[in-house]
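Table S7 (text form). Paired inputs.
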Amino acid sequence: MCVTCGCGDTSNVRVEGENDGEHEHVLADGTIVRHAHHDAAHAHDGHGHDDDHSHDHAHSHDHAHSHDHAHSHDHAHSHDHDHSHDPGHDSHHHAHGGATEVVALETALLAKNQRIAERNRGWFAGRGVTAINLMSSPGAGKTSLLVRTLTELGTELPMSVIEGDQETSADAERIRATGARAVQVNTGAGCHLEADMVERALKALAPAPDSVLFIENVGNLVCPALFDLGERARVVVLSVTEGDDKPLKYPHMFRSAQLMVTTKIDLAPHVDFDPARAEANARRVNPTIRCLRVSSRSGEGLADWYGWLRALVRLEAYS
């Protein structure tokens, strides 16, 4: 569960081509749940698991509930409500009150994510894989930029893609049509990719050594900024069909990125968008951010984008 926006739990995440095995996720109350998944779609409609929950947070229970499965409690705050645990379900509906619990949960979730992100970073470094996290609002043109890039640079740089969307494999299919390899990650109700999702996708995708891996995040300018995936660089994509004040409205996203790519620049004369003002706003929140303007349709500015990619790969090779 994303404690920033309250989006759904990660038990519904499906990684295309994932092998049988086990994964874990953290529930809203801090419970760690481990699941065995049995097929590539990772369906959660009536699957079986041990439901072996371990609680490391402190509170005491002052309510009646029945347990059909084993889990241990090390609690120290009180509840005045009744609930029952059903091992066929992954979510607990605890009514935890107060900001303290939310902050503690957020800290635990982000710390867990960071540990896996560092593991991903080591995996990338050990294989010479340059991982790039692409983030934007929905419809800003990330996939179109990737399709053009893969088509024109595919023979020069080995590249593959992890595609993040709530549902469908439409974008992964567009990527594969270029000849590049791609794995779709469907987050269900989730609004962003997390490090463990990338870790699972890496097992299915197995990017080639000394290659470029694009991670196309779920369309969202808020939560993806908070979750390190282990990437080498972050790129935020801003379309001219959006407002040029977006960097000021979503400063955390633009502050966390090394590069801002303004897309659909061929439409700029036809919309109320000032590219120079958008770039100035981005530099107000992040003075070191680089800015490029491109059109995946006309090809304008793509040489600069390709030059940035080549430089990043060279930098990675010598770092």
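Next pair, protein 2 of 2.
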Amino acid sequence: MKITRLPLKVNYISAGDKMISFPGLKLVADTANRLGILSGLNRVGVKKRRRGIPTADFIMSLVDNFLVGGSHLTDLEALRSEKATRAHLYDLEVPAPTTAGEFLRKFSVGHIKQLERVIGNAVVKGAELIGGAGVITLDLDSSIFEVYGLLKEGAHYSYKKVWGFHPLLCFWAEQRLLVGAKLRPGNRNSDYKATSFIAGCLSRLPKDSHIRMRMDSGFYNKKIIAYLLDKGVEFSVSGKLTTALNRAIEAVGPDQWKPYPWEKDAHWCEFPYHPKDWPGTFRMIVKRVPHYEGNQRVIGEFRYNPVLTNRKGAGSSLIKHHLGRGGAENYIEEFKNGLGASHLPSHSFSANWAWLVIAQLAYNLAQWLKLLVLPGGEVHKQLKHLRLHWLCVAARIIHSGRRRIVALARSPDDAARFNRAQAIIFAL
């Protein structure tokens, strides 16, 4: 970089009718169209003004805002100000921030359920395009969404002493899709309304799939397990070290502990276990590791990780698979902060729930773009990578005859990547 003696003065002008900042959003819109999302959004019956913006445009404006890095309603102004970008996105009508806030407040629980059905239909369609679902692993979890508005409906102090909300989230681990997002007040337990939430998640999955669910100890609940058994769902749930379970672990003989193949000094054992008043006896598989205080190992003391399951297979492999649910923490972090879903903008509980489900749609569209359209190496990349290389690329619109050309501010190889991605969408 050459440093000049004096800064070079330039003249900044507006070229909003010729330049676009987000050409990759057209790939998102085309993918949404192929999955039936755009037509489905127009059937979401949120009341609008007689000459108002279509529902699909409202929702896709918020989706696009999430995808390009906007985390507040005021960030809609960036997309709203780009005339050429909106034309590039099939004349997308972007609402003003205040209008978008009014739109969110019109959502009822019924409208949110309609939006969830659109997402569920897209999950099934996406699985068909990928080539079938097969085995589906669901990771059920909850997370604290901290907020600062004291007047936000439903905000309370959580078990972590944080003021906010405590939504339920459920991820399809193999495809990293978010199949369920339910907003709850901040002072609710992890398993509060979990059974009805699981039912909704199961309804959005392909019917011929084999489903197994992984849960942490917050969902160690007999009603949840009874429901999963009734639906034929395999499960593994982290056990709570109750007095009864501690006694059962202490009764295990030294020769029953087997080396855990994937971790040094770790061992595992298995025994049948019937928690009191639960609907049956299950496999209790326990992993133990030596207990350390600082760098000093305490001889004869261990830390235990119990897992209750109805699955078949080698116990050590089941423990390893169950502990893989820790990957959901990374998905939650990207959803909350990478996407910006955790900024709940309204005083209305239903409006914030609608915001959360629209963020779910944005998160899934980014993942569908990676699964269905982009090169294979992109599927595990984070959203910030997607923004830098695909969504937020400066470009110029050129009209030549009856053709529209998008001249990217990148190399010819990058332009070729965009052309290949577009061809893949049209071939779906």
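Residues 349-373 form the longest helix (25 residues).
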